[in-house]
Amino acid sequence: MAWPTITINQLNQMQGDTAEVERHFLFVGKGSVGIDTLISLNTQTNLDTAFGDTDSDLKANVQAAMLNAGQNWTAAAYVLASDGDWADAVREANKTQSFECVVLCDPIADDDTAEITKAQALKAEMIATYGRFTRYLLAVVGIDSATQAWADYETKLVALQDGIAADGVGLIPSIWPNTVGIYAGRLCSRAVSIADSPCRVKTGAIISEDQTLPLDMAGVELNTATLQTLEANRFSVPMWWPDYDGIYWADGRMLDVDGGDYQVIEYCRVMDKVSRKMRIRAIARIGDRAFNSTPYSIAAAIKYFLADMRTMSKSTLLNGEMFPGEIMPPSDDDFAITWVSKTSVKLYATVTPYDCPKQIEINLMLDLSVAA
Q1: InterPro entries in the record, alphabetically (predicted)?
Q2: 290 with 297: CB under 8 angstroms?
Q3: Tens digit of pLDDT for each residue in 219-242?
């Protein structure tokens, strides 16, 4: 016989939202105020108070990011001493916050490949240490207008990235002192999704107080031929069209290998978001015997693990125009579960981005037939 009892348990089914890491960037650069301090930023932040009245690459790029990101922008900045190591700053900042991207505001030299490989190594370190998926945007020194022609500048920059495989790193030439900040802000705009390419014209022209194009030592103004050469060699650069107002952006290039899946930043961003969501879901299922190899459990697991991808794929139809989700809607065939042993299981998922027209060809024909 048993003593009559009633037990009420409030079960946590892990159905809530997770914190958004996307669009939250870390800006790292040298400064004279707040050294070795992580500063939280938003659109109400007074940058003169945060970074001092003195101009710096960090301050200029944070300002550019704020303007191009627009409403509800948040970020953090870590101020380095003149001899500070930016990698140590990233490690320290990750003790407090998580970031989608790290933006190195002080331009690297045109022969400093070590900074690129350091960034790729740091990407792997953050995954190993925290399970955090973070990309790195590095400003590259601009042209020396006293000693370089545009051909010289192209040669130096092409050599900088040659032979490097670093899918976690994007290189942004400092066409203006705040170029990397402009790019970072464009990526953080809430007017578009993380799946949108920075080349999307509907996003609007870039915003910057000074858009004067730089000159080389012969007084030749920067032209699109140089920008095309840099873009073809995996640099992310601004661009424009004749007879079309405004300066825009070309592709968001990453240093993935030729033929790799992660050559453009929008693919990296959606995959990183899925990775973050899947990781949280997997942690919640550790040791839960309800997740097993029976048919009912497999079906329930597919529904559970695909939930975030289905949320990311939601589209909106308005006035006959479709606003697509971040990825294509997944089907059950896009997810597979393999039980390797009684205690080890492997999950496989396919993430499918939407098509994106980056090159458009228009063919026109005349109809000279005589009407009957």
Answers
A1: Phage_HP1_Orf23 (IPR019694)
A2: yes
A3: 999 999 999 999 999 999 999 999
